[in-house]
Amino acid sequence: MILPPDENRNGPASSAGPQSGNERFGLALPEDSQLQAATPWWKTTAVAIIHFPILADKAHHCAMAWAHPQHPKGRVDAAGDTLVNPNASLEQKEAALEVINNWRSSHSYPLQSLKMTLRTRALKTDRRAITAQRLKRLSSIAAKLDRNKNMKLSQMQDIGGCRAVVKGIRQIERVLKRYTISRAKNPTARVEFVKMFDYIQCPKVDGYRSVHLIYKYRSPSPRHKVWHGLRIEIQLRTKLQHAWATAVETVDAFTGQGLKTSGGSGTEKVEWGRLFALMGSFIACKEKKPMVPGTPNRSELIKELRQLSEQLQAEIKLRGWSYGMQLADERAKPGDEVFLLTLDTVQRTVGIRGFSDMRKAQDAYLLAEKELKPGQQSVLVSVDSLDAIRTAYPNYFADTGVFVGVLEEAVAENKEDEIVQQLQGPPEGTPQSAAQ
Prior knowledge:
Elements: H1 6-9, H2 21-24, E1 45-51, H3 53-60, H4 73-83, H5 90-105, H6 108-125, E2 130-135, H7 138-147, E3 160-166, H8 169-185, E4 191-198, E5 211-217, E6 231-238, H9 239-255, H10 267-286, H11 298-312, H12 314-322, E7 326-331, E8 338-344, E9 349-355, H13 358-370, E10 377-383, H14 389-392, H15 401-412, H16 415-424, H17 431-435
Helix pairs in contact: 4-5, 6-8, 9-10, 9-15, 10-11, 11-15
């Protein structure tokens, strides 16, 4: 049932017989014991439910397969307020979670609909494009509400989100063009365009770069009106932008620094945050796009990046976290349509549990979130196939290989010239040479 990642599928067959789950997912223990010694003391358990669109197509025409909003928006907003209210009782929290889970689950049908359109357009542009989708984590919902005091839960536009990862900037531009042409031809079509956020032309200060499209779901079908107005976010990323974003997720999981939120503090968070901002600019230079605000010119950027990488031992840590990852628990059988993917960063394990019933999977997901402890996280995601799990969500395998490769490229730039200059000393006529 479990297939290997793309890079291993076409390799030579092992003479030792069938591959283990670890081998099939490219998970193996390191030979260098030093890389295993730096296991962090905290435990992060990330939970992901994967739903396959081929099977979803079958359920696409069955209204009972998808959750409907059961509460008015006023009650949804009140539940969001309770979620971030530190004085709310346990009973109030429990009631709020039931409302929020229904509201979140109700985005599944509109999300699936927009994801399938995205998949078609992305594959027409790049036949190796990866598409994925997720429902926003409770912890992320709470963090966003807490940061934006005037925001109401019913107004949040990324409860449901889907993403396409394509080769480069040119492919993103082509996908965007397909969306623009479609809107011009069918302005009153199935979905309503709301807004675009271009973080490639205007990068975030933390280094994040991508294009976000916001849509409201609508349909001419009377039985689909129950989902009208629900907002879905579409993300378009290049492979390098995706490598950057998932590396941030990996560092968050293994260090608890909260690089994407207000969590974490101290020198390490500042240094990791600065490293990712600088790497955002380095990748922007490679893609010939605007650099991240607050980062220096390329020459100074490389020097600062090299210094930070050495201070953090970034390359060693990023590679070390992936070594020792094992597939510890595989419970999937033919007929399963939904899968619970569990990452344990202390035990360095990935577990997979299959479900044939979407509602049972969603119940299991909510139960996992209710039982979260500090340092744990969960997320509901969907990919095209088991093959695509590691490519779409490499952070669940602590796989930062692509990002580390770009980081190594950056820190190696101009290094030989700098070494030669240090050996030769300062040029004649400078204050340093005169002092000598």
